[in-house]
Structure formats: structure tokens, C-alpha cells
Amino acid sequence: MSKCEISGMSGDIVCQDSGEQATQRHKTARSQEEIELRKLEAIKRRKKMDYLRPLQKEALGFLDKTGHHSIIIMPTGSGKTTLMWSYKSENKCSLVFAPFRILVEQLGSVLAQKGRVTAYPFVSNDGDLYSILATCDFIILPYEAAPTSASLVQSLNGLNRLGPIWVDEVHNLSTTGRFRKSLDSFWNLGAELQIRRVDHKMIGLTATLRPDDVRDVMKRMSIGTADVYRQSCYRPGLDIRFLRFGIEKDMIERACSLATGCVKEGKVLVFTSTVNLCDIMGDQIRGRFNG
Amino acid sequence: MRALVQGVTTFLIDIPHHSFLTDIPHHYPHFRNIAVVKSSSGRSDVSHEIVADATIVVGTSCVGTGTDIPDARTIVIVGLPYSIEQLLQWAGRLRRDYGTVYVLITEFALREVTELSGKGYIWFGYVYLI
Hints:
The complex is a heterodimer of chains A (291) and B (130).
Chain A: E1 3-6, E2 13-16, H1 19-28, H2 32-50, H3 54-65, E3 69-73, H4 80-86, E4 93-98, H5 101-111, E5 117-119, H6 129-135, E6 138-142, H7 150-158, E7 162-167, H8 187-195, E8 202-206, H9 214-221, E9 226-230, E10 239-245, H10 248-262, E11 267-272, H11 275-290
Parallel strand pairs in A: 3-8, 3-9, 4-6, 4-7, 5-6, 7-8
Antiparallel strand pairs in A: 1-2
Helix pairs in contact in A: 10-11
Chain B: H1 2-14, H2 17-21, E1 34-37, H3 48-53, E2 56-59, H4 61-64, E3 72-78, H5 84-91, E4 100-106, H6 107-117, H7 123-129
Parallel strand pairs in B: 1-2, 3-4
């Protein structure tokens, strides 16, 4: 009920609505169509939430709450990719940057199950760019494309289809973890978008990022402030064994024995610190199988 | 609309192809069960499927970060990882519930890190604790 009173001193008329009426007026401001759309989105979101793991739900809740750029740090294998499609809004296109071609391809195949995907190089939709911009749900690009992709982001924004910009394995951008010189120019994307006044939200994803490196990564992404969601990457069941050797030859010999011996139990992954060692290990293991 | 498409076309042309192509992995196609993936040289189109299907995958950090390789039971790390984060990334490729990570390092590499540790590379202390 409206309550009006006349101030005795100044003679001004002061009108105050009760809280209930104010809420009612706010509600009627939305059209029925908009309410239905929001309901549908809420239902869809709830359905997705049903099969999310607790950590994913928590991270999704964090992303929903924060309106700023964000950095999500979650353990390996906790389902960071799932966040990409869970957080996606209807009719929006998310951009995803990945550091390796093999990751671009992997993300493409995973996200293709959830929506229309275009991964670099653009071959879907018969290469029709407008059709890609108008219909795709995810566009996946390598890090190297970031400095020159401002036009793409602006075009999506012009079509009112710009979703969040995901930067996968964002720790690769930090000075300590950076492995390619070309990544120095990644910040051009954020800077260019700010110059063009494109309102965007960047979300970095990683499993390993030191607290000291967060500022550095923000600088590389060209963002001033970012909300950080951090979960420990500690895995209690991990069995790590260190073996020390006097000379490299012995080390390689033992590594080959381990790789070929353990293959009976299941798949073996051999990671080397240098490309040279990778070549040697590849040849040695191949030689053993030939022999 | 014309401006929009032109903008995107410019974007496509401007992608520095060569810098990206340097990181395309390489593999030996005649060995179906061994995939060698490295981050320099080579322009073959090794796919995620090849890596996922191989019995033994040999690679550098380009395959050790973020790649989803199902059913990995053993990880052999040859040489000292660049940082504890890299070690955790590599170890993260392991299957969720079980498996072993072997880290093989030489005394020479350890001595090198000892020198570096004085300059702030503290993760070496972690190695010694173990």
C-alpha cells in the first residue's frame, strides 16, 4: 500500500512504497516471455548440475557469482573442460584458447558432444565465416592466434553472441612456465579488446599455478583484476618414486626397461625433459620392440 | 556485414602459422603402438586419437600438459622436470585410482639444480625430502 506524507517543514511530497509493492513492480517489468526463458535456463542449469562433481559445482557457483575475469585452479582430471559447457549461456559462443594443437583437437572432440564447434583451422560450415559466427557454440584456437583475434571477438560481440573467453592451461603464460617466445604477445588480445571497448570476460583454467605467478598471468592476459578460485592439486594416492643415476646412459637404459616392462600392466607414458632425450627414448624403445 | 567478414578474414590471415606449426608433434607412423610426440621439428598430423590408442607414448611437455590419455598405468619421467608444477602436470596424466610415477634423474642434473636452488628454485628440496 502506498504511503504518502507531506513534510511539514519543507512542504515536499515524499512517496514511499512498501517493500512488497516495489518487488511486485519489479516483477511486472519483465515480460512473460522473458520469465519463461529464464525458467527454462534455470531448469537446464539444474539438470546439468545433477551430474557435476562437487568440485565442479563449487567452481560453477563461483563463476556464477563473480562478474569479473577469473582464474580457476583445480586438480588435474577434476573436469575443467566440463565447466566450459556447463557455464555456457544460451545462444552465446565461447572462445577457447589452448596451448597445443593436440589440445585444440582434444577440446574440439569433447565439446562437439555439447554443441557446434569450430576448431582451428576453420573448416566447418564449409568455411562460411558468417555462418560460423552466427551458429557455433565454441570456437577453439591456439594461443598464437590470440593477438590477432580481437576482430573475431568484436564480430561475435556485434552479433550479441560473445560468451566467456577461456584460456586453457593458463599457467603456460607465466614467465616461469612460458615455453614459447611467441606467447609474449598474448596480452595483445585483452589490450585490443579494451581499446575497442568490447565488454568481455576472460577465464583462465589450470591445475598448477603458484600464488606468486597469478599477477604475472593476469598481466599476460591483460586484465587488471581477477577473482581466483583455488583448489589443491595434491593427490593422496599418487605413488612417485625417484631413481638417481651416475651417468645418462644408465638412466636411459633403466627407463627403457621400465617402459617395456610395465607395458604388460597397461599403457605407459614416457615424458622427457628435452627433445633430444625424446628422440633417444623413442629410438631405444622402438629398437627393443624390433629386437 | 561486409566489414564483419573482412575483419574475420584479416584475423585468419594474420595468424602466425609458422610459430604455431613449430609445435605440431611428430610421430612414427609405421609403429602403431608407439607414439613419439615432441614439440620441435616434424609437421606430421599426429592426432589425439593416435596418442590415445598407443600403448607407449613418448613425448615432451607438449603431450604432458592437459592431454587426456585414458588408462595410463605407469609414467616414466626421464630427466629432471623444469619445475614441481611440470612434474605434477605429467603425473596428472595417470589414471585416477592407481599407478606409479618413476622419475629418473642423473647426479649431474641434481648438482645443477643444487646450484639453482640457491637462486630460488626451491622445489629441489622436495626431491631431497623424498
